[in-house]
Amino acid sequence: MPDTTHPAPDAPAADAPAGAREIPTLAVEDVTVRFGGIVALDAVSFSVAPRSIHALIGPNGAGKSTCFNAVTGIYRPTSGRVTLGDAVLTDTPPHEVARLGVGRAFQNLALVGGSSVLDNVMLGRYSLTKGGFLSYGLRLPRTMKAERRHGERAAEICDFLGIGAHLHRPAGVLSYGDQKRVDIARALAVEPTVLLLDEPAAGMNASETADLARLIRDISEGLSISILLVEHDMGLVMGIADRVTVLDFGRLIADDTPAVVQKDPAVIRAYLGSVEEESA
Ligand SMILES: Nc1ncnc2c1ncn2[C@@H]1O[C@H](COP(=O)(O)OP(=O)(O)OP(=O)(O)O)[C@@H](O)[C@H]1O
């Protein structure tokens, strides 16, 4: 992936919800999620401080994806709640969660490969419009003016992520690293106050992962938003996170700075245990 060389885009357009960029705390409060007899999350609580890079880690099956899905309203917790400032995300339908300031990039690229980079990023933008996707389909004059403005903003975000040169190319022909950037651009197109990144380094080699670490720092510093990151690459996590929450079998076993978490005996045991299970 190329380095990010462009300055951060200006503050969001006037009709974007993030407005003057007050960044609220994301709080997971005593959240339990059960699937039949499986307790995927067991009374988990932690907070993502405004403008921090916060990692959520744990061995396979620890409950990380379940936690992301609870934050984005895809799963309803059995008990507990998730708040973003005053908004209760767990009372909000999934399609409204983006509008409240939560952007999510996915583990498996969910791009429309045959559509242009710009069109893919604009898909994120439609959640900000009053009429949504349908009003654009009808091509009303007012909506076409708004579409131009949204298109300009989407292009700015792509510039910031170093993919501005590819705006009109089909997303599917880009390198894996650049497709990942398109996915992140689409998540940023909702003008989030918190960006959720689900295993962004999966499938990347060491040099792509180093580029990604720089990109995540650039997003954090340039856009001044919070980032919650699920990631298995410990080098990446420990290198960029301000704080690390560790889950094991659905329970929170550590929540501290990277330096403290790395030395935590419960964390070491959880990871060693998972390695022993895999090799047994
Ligand atoms: N929709 C579901 N139905 C039933 N069980 C589920 C569902 N989603 C997750 N689980 C179970 O909940 C537990 C936590 O799974 P989850 O996918 O959240 O873990 P994870 O930490 O994201 O794992 P990985 O690192 O492998 O992606 C696992 O036991 C999993 O099998």
- Which cofactors or ions or other ligands sit in this model? adenosine-5'-triphosphate
Q: Overall pLDDT, averaged?
A: 87
For this structure, what is the CATH homologous superfamily of the domain at 26-114 and 183-279? P-loop containing nucleotide triphosphate hydrolases
Instruction: Output the helix-strand order.
Output: EEEHEEHEHHHHEHEHEEHH
Quote the distance from N terminus to C terminus.
37 Å
Counting DSSP H or I runs of 4 or more residues, the number of helices is 10
Identify the CATH architecture of the domain at 26-114 and 183-279. Answer: 3-Layer(aba) Sandwich
The counted number of beta strands is 10
Largest sheet: 6 strands, mixed
Question: Strand arrangement, largest sheet?
Answer: 6-7-8-3-9-10
Radius of gyration from the alpha-carbon trace, in angstroms: 19 Å
What structural class do you assign from the helix and strand content? alpha/beta
Uncertain segments of ≥5 residues (pLDDT<50)?
A: 1-19
Query: Which word captures the global form?
Result: globular
Q: Regarding CATH, which class of the domain at 26-114 and 183-279?
A: Alpha Beta
**According to CATH, what is the topology of the domain at 26-114 and 183-279?**
Rossmann fold
Strand content: 15-25%
Keywords: ATP-binding, Nucleotide-binding, Transport
GO molecular function: ATP binding; ATP hydrolysis activity
GO cellular component, one term: plasma membrane
Biased composition (Low complexity): 7-18
